[in-house]
Amino acid sequence: MNITFEEYLVLKKTMQETQKVRILSNSMEPFIHTDEEIVIKKFESKLIRKFTPIVFWYNERLICHFYIKKINKDNCSYYLTKSLNSKYYDELIKEEHVLGEVIIPKVSIFKKLLMAIAHYKTFF
């Protein structure tokens, strides 16, 4: 979803418990398809777990990728993320740029395990 940073800040400030977001890329296929509408819940950094799909603002877009880990650097919190269809990690994402955690479609622990095994060389 294309969105300016100002629009993102308004969305984040006015977001209800859940929010629908349309996916514009194939970076998470076959889990989430291009043009699919997903549902996210407000982001709670203390509850996030590895391989949880999150939505964040980056380069005028809302992006959905997997959370890998939190990194504290220069008195700021950042998140390392990765798409399902890339060999490489994304650039670090500032904590305040994370909008929410994907709740629909749901990723079971079994699916997370399968994804981790299938992408072992790039996730670890």
Verbal overview:
This protein has 124 residues and is α+β, with helices and mostly antiparallel strands. The protein has one domain: Umud Fragment, subunit A (Ribbon), CATH 2.10.109. It is built from three helices and seven strands, in the order αβββββββαα. The chain has a seven-stranded antiparallel β-sheet. The longest helix is centred in the first third of the chain and has 10 residues, at 5-14. It is globular.
Number of domains: 1
Overall mean confidence score, pLDDT: 88
Strand residue percentage: 35-45%
**Secondary-structure element pattern, one letter each:** HEEEEEEEHH
CATH architecture: Ribbon
Q: Record the strand order, biggest sheet.
A: 1-2-7-3-4-5-6
Structure annotation, total helices: 3
Radius of gyration: 14 Å
Gap between N and C termini, in Å? 29 Å
The unreliable regions are none
The biggest beta sheet, please?
7 strands, antiparallel
Give the CATH H-level superfamily.
Umud Fragment, subunit A
Q: Based on CA inertia axes, which overall geometry fits? A: globular
Helix content: 10-25%
Class from secondary-structure proportions: alpha+beta
Question: Tally of extended strands?
Answer: 7
CATH topology: Umud Fragment, subunit A
CATH class: Mainly Beta
